[in-house]
Structures are given as C-alpha cells and as structure tokens.
Amino acid sequence: MIQCSDCEFFSLTPDGKPKLLCNPYSNIKEPDCLVKWQLVKLDTMVEAYMSTVEIYRRLAPLQERMFQHMEQELDEAEQADSWKYGTPEEEDEEDDDETPPDDGVRC
C-alpha cells in the first residue's frame, strides 16, 4: 500500500493537516486511497460544522434579546389596540344588561 506522504497528490497545510489533491473520480491510485480521502473530507465537514455551531453559540444571546424586544413590541401593540376590542369583563357586563327583567310570574 502506498503511503499518502509518498504520493504526488499529497501535501500538508501550514497548520500540519493533510491535504489530498487527488480526485476520487479520476486519479485514485489504490482502493485504500479512497478511504483515506473520505476520512479527510469527513474531518473537513466536522470542522465546518463545529465552526457553524460556534457562530450559533455567539449569536444566541443576541437572538434572545431580539426575541424579547419583539415580544415587548407585540405586547405594546396589543395594548394599544385593546380599546378596539374591549375587555372580556366589559363584554360580560353588557351580556348581563341584555337579560330580560324577572317580573316574578312563573309558569
């Protein structure tokens, strides 16, 4: 089995991580090369996912404040429009006023 370090499609990044320049569709030399290529690509995907998670972790407090502000704005808008709809207590009082008076005669 050929070692990646002996292959012309292998190089190291400045931070010491392997970089495979081989194309799995055209220039893979051995079947094991494909497995190594998949491992390197999987590692790249994990790094990208961890970077995304870190950004979400940094944005979480800002998002929470934004949601609180939006809830406050919505509550204020509902309070400002409450005169249009009245309160449930006022509706109950209006319903009580509409009942016919009891004249004391029962059937």
What features would you describe in this structure?
With 107 residues, the chain is mainly alpha-helical. The chain has one domain. It contains 3 helices and 2 strands, in the order ββααα. A two-stranded antiparallel ribbon has the order 1-2. The longest helix is centred in the middle third of the chain and has 50 residues. It is rod-shaped and about 110 Å long. It starts with 9 loop residues before the first strand and ends in a 10-residue tail after the last helix.
Topology:
Layout: E1 10-12, E2 18-20, H1 31-80, H2 82-85, H3 88-97
Antiparallel strand pairs: 1-2
The number of helical runs is 3
Biggest sheet, open or closed, and with what strands and sense? 2 strands, antiparallel
Number of domains: 1
Label the structural class: mainly alpha
Whole-number mean pLDDT = 83
Percent of sequence in beta strands? 5-15%
Q: What labels would you give this structure?
A:
mainly alpha, 60% helix, 107 residues, two-stranded antiparallel ribbon, rod-shaped
Quick overview:
With 107 residues, this protein is mainly alpha-helical. The protein has helices at residues 31-80, 82-85, 88-97, and strands spanning 10-12, 18-20.
